[in-house]
């Protein structure tokens, strides 16, 4: 190529910076495109240098890792008690959402959920007793993510709780998640009153056996298929699960009717699912989890395999950095609040549900969900632009999960931590907002951006590993 | 007086938006000063010097936005602060518009405009090098408007590009015209057979506009940034540009414009030019014309001469004929100046040149060399001397208002006339001022209504002078063409109506202005 060759072509300009230059090009009818440029995140030059030097290795690793995410085939294969199924589960262990956190650093709703779970397990009689027990060190805490599980909001999984068992049939790995309790006073938002425990008991004794038998009768339920269909029906399967819940209902209803001990039980179970638009959330989350877990452990990969919040910290994990968590303070969501509540009431972001975004769903697929654009400014075009922006930091586009509003383009899948840092564009997450005090429940919903700090730290962590890999 | 402010972590806006917001805030009732800046070390230093560095700003970093206002009282400050955010948001809404989606990176821009071949980069200097390298690696030519890029980065970029047949225009390149498309601050000129390589932005604007106004046209106008011709960079892109134009079949005559290149660069240019069959006109501002001619180039002393020589050569006429014509024009100017010189009061003797274009300030000094004794400037070109204080004129003074001292936190004087308009009033009050010399630069990027900004200032200054029973001569040139968004003839007519003397080029205006004060000095000598 020589410079003079440019003189023979039509000039086509990418304008990065002052928009007035683009306006002048428009006046001259010269084809051009404006880049809405943002500065990269501040990073140590040595980290950037190490990442740049290994860029080809990283690209290969990322291609390999994201291929596993895309190829995943998540199925619901059964239901079990957590103690019997979740690896490493034991009687004095509570799993929670997000990166590791001690009782001392737990936020209000997380503490409330812990107390509720201890009462539910019969380990404490009163909230006070539960609090003392939690503080005593006799109860262990661990992240769901470290036990192949995920949990919405507080994400507490206690030994007696029933869990969905999922299998990624492509890769063979399993995943777990509790059953969704519905709205109102619920454990996942930190409520621990008698009605909460009563509902959990009903779920354990009525819902769980009925669903277990029904799923056993069906053999398995193809979740990838349901999610793909739901995206065409207005869900993004994080903040909106109405279509997916309906599709799941259709899939299991005949089996429930056939296997339930009596008509009343079948009716109660079906009514419970029908009455809870978020029932499927506890399936879209583990479906995402088993898809991403398959991509763990690819050396040098900067693919994000988990984004999770415990209400205190926001943590991420990369495929190429093993089990290490990279954390920063969890942001307080700028949300739409229910009547009577404001941002002052809001707890910092909480829950494992950002696993859906990590899998190219939720906020990444919000363009598929016009019904919830109130959360993103009320304008359908805004929702489309959120999804479009996420392509900038994603490694691939899903072949299965498609966005109708983008001419069925595959959803942006597989967050590259390097792109996040280089472009200063942060994953957008749909989220529910919990009250900062235990026991109050949900106070709003909206979207927020993942914070910068975990990504900056993760890149530094990856750079360290790269040094060792060479 | 109170100072209030806030930090917006991670809020990024381009510098023009920030400056506009700061200007808006400064104009609010009770507000005496305002700053809306990214929290870089340099900006914090500026805030400190203006007494607006609040303690909470210290911890903010490069990616954070600082908003500070200085106001008469708490209430005015709080009101202005509350308006800052809507101002910034408004700017983004306007450009983000409805469903229109701008890609956030070069990578995805190339998906939208797949065969894009040029990246124009105007992000903050500390990021521009990275962005430019990214563009080069993706096979794009680049134009870097940004300044404050380290010299080593410029050399690295240019060496990388050189091996791949790519152009790097800039850093600090404000003007280029490629394939007829004006880029950044450029004029709408006719296309033709004259190719330009320039390390001086306004110089390029002036030469390309004169060529177009003379009925000829420009094939390509390549900017290189001022540092390209210095020793360290070694004229990499100046030479590459020359080579590209030499190989370009549409280019018949080549014009080179720059401050004097380093000797080693001149030698390389000389060697390259000798191997060419195309005529090369060179205007190395302030350089020894004979030395340039000895290198095989047709040497020009001014931008005007360079343009006229190129037009003549493109038409197949001789350089001597063009120079002859220019000399007869000069004689005409001198007669007009002598006439004008009869209108002043005793004691009026000085010329004050207030330039928005740096090259024009230099060109004026070159013209004054044979004409005036002592000339002062904030950008002195020998034999002119440095001004003690850039904000205050002494004797004959020419000021480049585009220098950093004037532009920190403020738009360029080609866009924002307020600083120059204030300076005009200062000069008008000085009973020793006789002539005010101004440049007006049209084209894309420049102020869209320069006459509307300047004419009232000229009128007010003339009234000030008249009240002191003095005559004040405003001598102006307007750089641009009829096809520019501002339309040259309209601007000229409006300025004329305000009482300014309009000359066709900056060189002519400088000569005319210089001649007037020379006549005044001679008259004063006779009186004495």
Q: How would you summarize the topology of this molecule?
A:
The complex is a heterodimer of chains A (470) and B (528).
Chain A: H1 3-6, E1 13-16, H2 19-27, E2 32-35, H3 45-53, H4 55-71, E3 74-81, H5 82-85, E4 93-96, H6 108-120, H7 127-136, E5 140-143, E6 149-150, E7 162-168, E8 174-178, H8 194-218, E9 221-222, H9 223-231, H10 242-259, H11 263-274, H12 281-293, E10 304-310, E11 313-318, E12 326-329, E13 334-337, E14 350-351, H13 355-358, H14 380-391, E15 394-403, E16 409-415, H15 417-423, E17 428-434, E18 442-449, H16 453-469
Parallel strand pairs in A: 1-2, 4-5, 6-8
Antiparallel strand pairs in A: 3-7, 3-9, 7-8, 10-11, 10-14, 11-12, 13-18, 15-16, 17-18
Chain B: E1 2-8, H1 15-26, E2 31-38, H2 41-49, E3 65-71, H3 74-96, H4 106-112, E4 118-121, H5 125-137, E5 141-144, H6 151-162, E6 168-169, E7 175-178, E8 181-184, E9 191-198, H7 201-213, E10 218-223, H8 236-247, E11 253-258, H9 263-274, E12 280-284, H10 289-294, E13 298-299, H11 303-314, H12 319-340, E14 350-355, H13 358-368, E15 375-377, E16 385-386, E17 396-400, H14 404-407, H15 418-429, E18 433-441, H16 450-467, E19 473-479, H17 488-497, E20 501-503, H18 506-527
Helix pairs in contact in B: 1-3, 5-6, 7-11, 11-12, 12-18, 13-18, 15-16, 16-17
